[in-house]
Amino acid sequence: MDVALKIWRYNPQRGERELREYEVDAPDWACLLDVLDLIKDKHDGTLAYRKSCRMMICGSCGMRMDGRAILACKEPMKPIVEAGHVPTIAPMGNLPVVKDLVVDMEPFWGKVRAMKPWLDPGYDEVPEKERIVSQQQVNAIHKEALCIMCGCCVSECNSMEADPDFLGPAALAKGMRFVGDARDQATVERLQSYSSEHGIWDCTRCNFCQERCPKGVDPRDAIAKLGAEAVQAGIDSDMGAKHAKWFVTSAKTTGWLRETELVPKTQGVVKSLKEVKFALGLLKHGKVPPPVPPHVAKHVDESRALYDLVKQQERGGADGIVQSEKALAHLALDTDEERDPYGEDSFPRPLPIEKDGE
Ligand code: SF4
Ligand code: SF4
Ligand code: FES
Q1: Which label site among 50, 141, 143, 275 has the fewest CB atoms less than 10 Å from its CB?
Q2: Is residue 287 very low, low, confident or very high in pLDDT (cuts 50, 70, 90)?
């Protein structure tokens, strides 16, 4: 088949960026990485990109196709050619470009290192007996352990675009992999560290990381689990944590979100005084409902019953987070068809995290 590609080239010596078009003859089974190899071998040996395994496991070949992050070795070209489309290939976002499609991964690794991505078992002397971890305990971090550190999620993270110091989805997913590990004894220290500035609560919940992760890690779910674990451990001084807690209180008491009270509950009374002018403007335009008497939703009992149910089921912390099962279903079947991804012959169903002494 004849494959055409447009590739953003970057020459670091001259500082020039240019969109070049290539056409190659490729076998029907070729993926994007094969096509790049053909271009490099037969047309332009100066083209730079990373690769290693060609089987979606090393995480080297992350790049953008038509503006979305992909693994080049996971993208079959035949459907694109049949559709008559000429895709545009570019380097991943949110990381400095070194040359053509190669980005500098150092900022990525720096954030992963900041998570202390190693097990802290809480002892120095190695015990004589081996520590057995149950399947149920492994299941709790099953998705996070699938990460291949490709950076596709980081490329798409809009919070990182606004704040390059944000820890980001890959590093935070790695953090959850250790927070949820039954053998790790540094949970509280980890949660405190991950909850600080540029951490858990700076995620805007846009879900782009979740959508683009090629391995079904669902990093946004991992961040939600970290937030829930932090709140459960009483680590809730960040405005994001207070914001989340107010949502629960508000829904439980009146069945709807009382936004008028959201700002003082989240920012504190003193800081909220700065917003008085803005609040008066809203009031003038009829955007603020009168606080008294409080408006209580007609079926508030349903929202309270839901709250009680979650409490009864002891779904605290990470176990209370509803995970994006669709992503796993898609990964398992390579189809958009919906089904239970944890069903027979599929991924083990995640179960509650169990720590020592619980
Ligand atoms: S959900 Fe959060 S971590 Fe994921 S891409 Fe959006 S802002 Fe980034
Ligand atoms: S979470 Fe997914 S997209 Fe992000 S680095 Fe890991 S495998 Fe890649
Ligand atoms: S070359 Fe290893 S993931 Fe694509």
Answers
A1: 275
A2: confident
- Residues with Cβ within 8 Å of 215's Cβ and at least 6 positions away in sequence, in order, are 56, 146, 147, 148, 150, 331
Q: What percent of the chain has pLDDT over 70?
A: 90
The four Cα atoms 86, 92, 96, 99 give a dihedral, to 10 degrees, of -40
| Contact (Cβ atoms closer than 8 angstroms) between residue 68 and residue 161 | no
Q: Which one-letter amino acid corresponds to residue 86?
A: V
Residues flanking ligand 3, CB < 6 Å? 51-54, 56-61, 71-73
Distance from residue 215's CA to the centre of ligand 2 (Å): 7
User: Which of ligand 3's atoms lies nearest the C-alpha of 53?
Assistant: 2
pTM given for the model: 0.87
Could you tell me which residues come within 8 angstroms of residue 194 by beta carbon, excluding any fewer than 6 positions away? 115, 167, 172, 175, 179, 200, 226, 230
Residue 357's pLDDT band, with cuts at 50, 70 and 90, is very low
Which ligand ends up closest to the CA of 161? 1
Q: Which of 154-163, 252-261, 340-349 has the highest mean pLDDT?
A: 154-163
What is d(CA 208, CA 112) in angstroms, rounded to the nearest whole number?
Answer: 19
Q: E strands within the chain?
A: 2-11, 16-25, 62-65, 68-71, 88-90, 97-99, 102-103
CA 104/CA 95 separation, integer angstroms:
6
Q: What is the pLDDT of residues 197-237, one digit of tens each?
A: 999 999 999 999 998 999 989 999 999 999 999 999 999 99
Residues in the ligand 2 pocket, defined by CB under 6 Å = 147-153, 169-170, 173, 213, 215, 217, 219
Q: Tell me the pLDDT band of 160, cut-offs 50, 70 and 90.
A: very high
Q: Which of 115, 155, 158, 225 to mutate to test the pocket of ligand 1 (most atoms within 8 A of CB)?
A: 158
The mean pLDDT value of the chain amounts to 88
Instruction: Report the C-alpha gap between 334 and 76 in whole angstroms.
Output: 12
Ligand 3 centroid – CA 190 distance (Å): 31
CA 51 to chain centre: 23
